[in-house]
Amino acid sequence: MLLPDVCLARRRYVVETIGAALLSTGVEGYRRAGWRLGVPGETVRDWRRRFRSRSELISAHFLRWAWALDGSVDPPAGRGSPVADAVEAIGVCTRVASLVLGRRLPWSWVSALTAGGLLEINTFTPWPVPE
Q1: Which pLDDT belongs to residue 89?
Q2: How far apart are CA 127 and CA 41, in angstroms?
Q3: Burial of 85 (0-12, 13-18, 19+ CB in 10 A)
Q4: b/e for 17-26, b at 16 or more Cβ within 10 A?
Q5: How far is CA 75 from CA 5, 40, 60, 92, 106, in A?
Q6: What pTM value is reported for the model?
Q7: Residue 38: CB partners within 8 Å, gap ≥ 6?
Q8: Predicted pLDDT at 7
Q9: How would DSSP label each residue in 78-110?
Q10: Cα–Cα distance for residue pair 42/115, rounded to 1 Å
Q11: Alpha-carbon torsion 106, 13, 9, 125, what sign?
């Protein structure tokens, strides 16, 4: 099944909403983020938990894509936590992808580069890998 790049697999909310919830980690609690985004707080907590549990895999995946798109990309400096490093890797990759392949919203790139599976349950990465 093909998903539009505004969605993540098995998620009811658009990827921009999920991304906003993930970016607010450490800034506001999950209940407040949920209220602000119109999402149940427990849903935001679950998204954050899944992202945190896969943050190293997510970081590696997006850095591989960034280097595949532009071999001159410098690796980002560590941010001090796996979640912050994953967010930084996503930022680097989506900037490079927009410059090389054409402009689109960052979370749209996230959906496309993970085939909608950013928060999937699988223990192996089913995401498309750059060649």
Answers
A1: 95
A2: 28
A3: buried
A4: bbbbbbebbe
A5: 26, 36, 11, 9, 18
A6: 0.85
A7: 17
A8: 66
A9: P-SSHHHHHHHHHHHHHHHHHHHH----HHHHH
A10: 25
A11: positive
